[in-house]
Design brief:
The complex is a heterotrimer of chains A (192), B (98) and C (295).
Chain A (H helix, E strand, L loop, with lengths): L2 H23 L8 H29 L3 H6 L10 H4 L5 H23 L4 H28 L3 H15 L7 H15 L7
Helix pairs in contact in A: 1-2, 2-6, 5-6, 5-7
Chain B lengths: L1 E8 L6 E9 L2 H11 L8 E6 L26 H20 L1
Chain C lengths: L2 H9 L12 H29 L5 H27 L4 H9 L16 H21 L6 H29 L3 H21 L10 H4 L7 H17 L11 E2 L5 E2 L5 H11 L3 H14 L1 H7 L3
Helix pairs in contact in C: 2-3, 3-6, 4-11, 5-6, 5-7, 5-9
Classes of the chains: A mainly alpha (192), B alpha+beta (98), C mainly alpha (295).
Amino acid sequence: MDESKRVRTLLELADDELVVGWRDSEWTGIAPTLEEDVAFSSIAQNEIGHARAAYELAARELGTTADELAFDRSPGEYLCSPLVQLRLLDWAQAIARRYLYEQADRARIEALMRSDDELVAGLAAKMDREEVYHRMHAELWAERLRDEPRFREAIDELQPYLDAERGSGTPLFTDLWEEMTSVRRSAPGAEW
Amino acid sequence: MIVWEVFRQEKKGKPFEHAGSIEAPDAAFAEAWAREQYGRRGESEALWIVARDAVHEVHDFPDEFDLKYRRVDGYSLKARLKEARGRVEAGADASRAR
Amino acid sequence: MTEAEFIEHLHGGGQVEAGDWMPDEYRARLVKFVQMHGSSELMGVLPEREWILRAPTLQRKLALTAKVQDEVGHAQLIFRVVEDLGKPREQCLSELVAGEAKFHNVFHYPTQTWGDVGVIAWLVDAAAIISQKALLKCSYAPYARIMKKICWEESFHILHGRDVVLTLVNGTEAQRELVQEAIDRWWGPLMQFHGTKIAANDDPMIQWRIKSQANEDARQQFLEGYVPQIRELGLTVPDPALRRRDDGVWEYTEPDWDELKAVVTGHGPRSAERLALRRRFLEQERWVREAVLAA
């Protein structure tokens, strides 16, 4: 994999995982049951963990740090899918996004696991071992919600976002970015 | 919702101990949720999850007739041991005297 | 067993399990106390949750999310204990959002800066852990058992809090100021946290061996442990009367007990707003619990 393609692949992966993890973390404390709340938060943390690992690989090549890649790029520079940028505080929609995201992510991870770049393939294999449980969780819920009209509607509504072009120059992402970076920007370059 | 009892094994070789309970509609959710509540820090080697109804408690153990022979405190060897040692010493003294 | 025999059993260090006979007063006080703990964990989530989305590094993001997740996990453990005592979780949650269930004063106040995030995890959690360690000796065994897991998990929270604070005090002047300013705002509620000075002999919760530490003892333990930690960082405590006597007792300005009473009965600066948030999501997802998850 050539250098710029490698970085781009890593950043797409990292930006997706960062933003979906950021959105999923918003359910911590307000999920439908306490047991589900704990489990869902673990998924969000795993995603941020994946993002961090992917940023670290890219950071080595770019001569920067994972935090700088995660926080200090301008809003238009992120390469995440529009699907992950949506703020979805309705359970049917949140699960629909999880379900669609896991399907797409699975295809990506399987491709990366076959990469001839050892570090990228290794990272993908590690992610996959955790993603197994994310998929099980999404499928468990999708099965339960199968006959629920609001779930079916959510899937239909969200599907186009999955297929839409990557990029973050939208007001939706800018709002997310501003919130995400508000503390960090208050003292640029400082340690937190 | 069904109540599920969770038993956890901290390390290989250790027994499974009761850790708590969770509420879940079925075994699949119970597993997914117990895994996080009792294992997200890697603090458990394994978990057993059992529906509360499947656990049978036994808690009455009558011992009305004092069948102490089945326990360590049912034996008092001190006196007999003292007597036996006494005999050996007395026997040794007697031989020396002859 | 009679009530007198039950009390004798407790005073001899005896424990009580879920299926045991217990006097009505014991059960009622226990349920109220444990329910308040659960309500506090659920409400404690909300001030910190606001900062999950604004954490300034990936590590802080993860640590703060994990801390809040632990609190939800604690609520789960606690409400299971309450349910096994006869009061269903859904009823406890309804009472909470209807403003009928009390929760600790500290969770009624706003979190205004990242400095609050550090100070809460360091000092508020420290105050809570002192009480929680005392609860390890609770006569009601199911509750004492969950307190072990809770105390173990809380130990990470304090480390996280201290790490955040230390990073800030070692940072820019503005970052240092975030911590001092947060301490200045949180000191009052912290001093009220352990409650009024009821003597152990007058506290029914201690007579029933539900609590094992008098309120004032907990507060003294907090001051003894944490005032030196605050001062060694060059930070100040906003109480000119605070001093340690030669006999080891800390003197301080009498906390505002009227404020405490008003706050825990739902009149704190953020009480209504946070209960409304809880109510909104409880209602919004009722269909998930009642239809989707009904076994």
